[in-house]
Structure formats: structure tokens, C-alpha cells
Amino acid sequence: MKGAVVKNAGGAGMIVLNNLTLGYSTLAEPHVLPASHIDYPASSAVRSYLNSTASPVAQIVFGGTVLGTSPAPSIAFFSSRGPSVQDPGILKPDITGPGVNVLAAWPFKVGPTDQTLSGVSGGGPTFNFLPGTSISTAHLSGIAAIIKSKYPDWSPAAIKSAIMTTADVTDRSGNPILDEKHQPADWFATGAGHVNPEKAMDPGLAYDIDPSDYVGYLCGLYTSEEVSMIARRAVNCSNITVIPDSMLNYPSISVVFPQTWNRSMPVVVQRTVKNVGKVPSTYTPKVDMPAGDVTIDVSPSELVFTEMNQEQSFKLTVWPRQNGTKVVQGALLWVSGAYTVRSPISISFTWNRSMPMLVQRTVKNVGKVPSTYTPKVDMPAGVVTIDVSPSQLVFTEMNQEQSFKVTVWPGQNGTKVVQGALRWVYGTCTIRSPIS
């Protein structure tokens, strides 16, 4: 569309300028006239030149295909960003892959149909360059399929673990991966890093997840009915041990310290790894974190494997410092010979006020049957918003259990302790739980 407007106005060529948001990300797109897409610094220079002369001139010179440019890889402006609003205890995104100016076949002719412009009789070629997370997904799916073909017994979680724990965190020049503004990208942009297919074929260790663990995790987020829809089977969350998001056996580690957290208390995170590499093997841990803000202890001090598929568990104890007020990111590395199994770590000290806190409770009917209880929240206005789900608890039997969730949305100006209560009311019965 831009090119058509320029061409119809008599333009011989077009320069597409980036704004600050697009940064250094440029796209290869078909145009109806010669065009060049330039990054933000070059665009700023062009704007300055245009404002400095009444008769600006320019030319587009084709420099051919240039290989081995740096920085590469880097994060595009459109790449998905974390943290997860729903589940801050699970670091997102997981991984990055090729997704900018990817060349592939195309079902239609691309570019202008005029042979004098396209150089091809009947229109442009049937190939295209496309950007997007969907393009990156195709690469990751193909890599996952190759891993599955080599290890047909591996679960999806083990395959994801292999991809994440072997990812590259530096670019081709050995420097940290940069974002679209050429600033060091954090884990909320890169996830575990840029996928390395060759390394993913031999990860050494794998963080596996039993399908039942997902149900326990989902029961910490949704009602039994909602989890049943996801699991495609009947699920009663009151009979299932809830697994907090930070305790799911994920290849990455994310810990969020709310503002009210007692800084003298640590958070303990547990993980289990499976040996899918050599035997015997001994892995030793290395914590790579910026100095200050947190202290992380790993226990045990080594993991010894004498069999294939043998599992070993370890714990991370995260001690927050008194002055921690920001996001701190680093990694846990398990090292054994040529193997380095890397898990990104993200520690957040200030609760993002756009994120709710989710609390689940289960109550047992020891009163009348049948009975229907409705909730009422007594809290001072402002500061917080509290939602209760479901909107009623219906009991048809004695000792029947029902679960509910309380979602707490913090206000933007909340700086004090706020207290109130949740009441479940049925007739003359009022079950009151204090809230702080």
C-alpha cells in the first residue's frame, strides 16, 4: 500500500523509515517499486537530512546478499514478551527461534505483476520472505519432531526441556543477545535463549513432567469444571494436591516475592532431572546470578547418576536481600564434562500490580443438606479488588467438599496492610474467614 501511494504520486523509489518502537528490526517485503527498509538510527539520520535541505536526493544501491552480519540472532520488535500475567511463577517466553525474513515457497506469485518491475514473465516469483512468531513456531516444531524421531519414548515435556536447557544465550559474536533496540535482552524477551538444534539432540539431563502434575497445577488456577474441560475427563480438584506454578517441574525457574514478603524467609523451589546422557555421570551445580539482591543455595552439591533414565531431585533455596526491589535474572547450570544443562532463573521483588494473586481453599459441608452458600467479601474500598469463584457452593450430601478461588487484584496505590473478611452465608449460617 505504501509503495502504491508513492508510485501513483510519481515516485521512483521508496525508503521505509523505522520509529523507535521498531528499532533495528527491518523486514524484507515485496514492493511495487524499488524500496529499502532501514533501521531507526539510519531513519533518524535520513529525517535530519530531509530537514536540512530543500532538495534532498537519494539512491538505492543493491549490495547483494550479505552473510555473517552481527548482531545475530537478536530479538525482533514483534516477538512475544513476558512475564506471564496469569502465572508469574512460570517464566515466559520459553524459547526463541528464527522468525525474521525467513525464505520459503509461496502458493501465489509475489510482488508486482508488471514484468518490467518484477523481471519475471507473468509476475513475481512463488517464494516469499515472512516474519512472525508463527514462522519461529514452525522451526521449533520441526526441531521437536526430529528429537522425537531420535527419542520416540520421550514426553513433550522432556523434548521441551532438551530444547530449553541447551539454548544459546549469546549471539554469533559471543555477546549477549540483544533486543530490537540493541540493548541486552532479558529472559522476558529471550526465554531460555535461542534454540540450538544440534545441542538439543543430546541434552544430558531432562526436566520431565508427569501428565497428572499438569492437573495439579491447573487445579491451582481453575475450578474442577474448568479443569475437566481442559483435561477432557472428570476432575475433582478437592481430591488433588495443588502444585504451585513455581513448583511445576519446568526447565526454567521463576520466583516472585510480593511486597509484603518477610525478607528473613527464603523460598524453596524443587526440581527433578532425569539422566538421558552418559552413565556413570556426576553433575555439579553452578549458580550464575548478579551479586546482591538474592542468595541462592543448591542442595545437594552434586547429582550422581549410575543408570540411564535415573532421576534425581534437588532444591534451590532463594534468600532475598533486604534491599531487593527489582527483577534479577541469571541461571542455574548443572555441569558434567561436555554437558552443561542450563535453566534460566528470574527473581522478581516488586509485585506487578497488573497481576492478581490466586488463592484456593476447600470446604467440607458439616451442616444441613441440601444447602447453598453464597460469598460476601467485606473489605475497605479501594486498595484491592477481590473476586470469588464460583458464585455459590451447593451441597447435597454430608461431608461433601467444594473448592473455591479468591482472586486478589492489588490497587495501584496500595502501600499498607488491608484487612477484611470472606463470608459464606446460608440462612442463619455464616462461615467467616479473615483476610489480610
Strand order of the main beta sheet, please? 6-13-12-8-10
Taking pLDDT < 50 over at least 5 consecutive residues as the criterion, the unreliable ranges are none
Determine the fraction of residues in helical runs and give it as a percent range.
10-25%
The third-level CATH topology of the largest domain is Immunoglobulin-like
DSSP helical segment count: 9
| CATH first level of the largest domain | Mainly Beta
The value of Rg in angstroms is 27 Å
Report how far apart the termini are.
57 Å
Give a short overview.
The chain has nine helices and 20 strands. With 436 residues, it is an alpha+beta fold. It folds into four domains: 2-52, no CATH class; 102-200, no CATH class; 205-348, Sandwich (Immunoglobulin-like); 357-435, Sandwich (Immunoglobulin-like).
Structural summary, described in words:
Keywords: Signal. By secondary structure, this protein is of the alpha+beta class. It has four domains: 51 residues, no CATH class; 99 residues, no CATH class; 144 residues, Immunoglobulin-like (Sandwich); 79 residues, Immunoglobulin-like. The protein is 17% helix and 29% strand. It has a five-stranded mixed β-sheet with strand order 6-13-12-8-10, with no helix packed on it. A hairpin with a 2-residue loop joins strand 19 and strand 20. Helix 4 crosses helix 5.
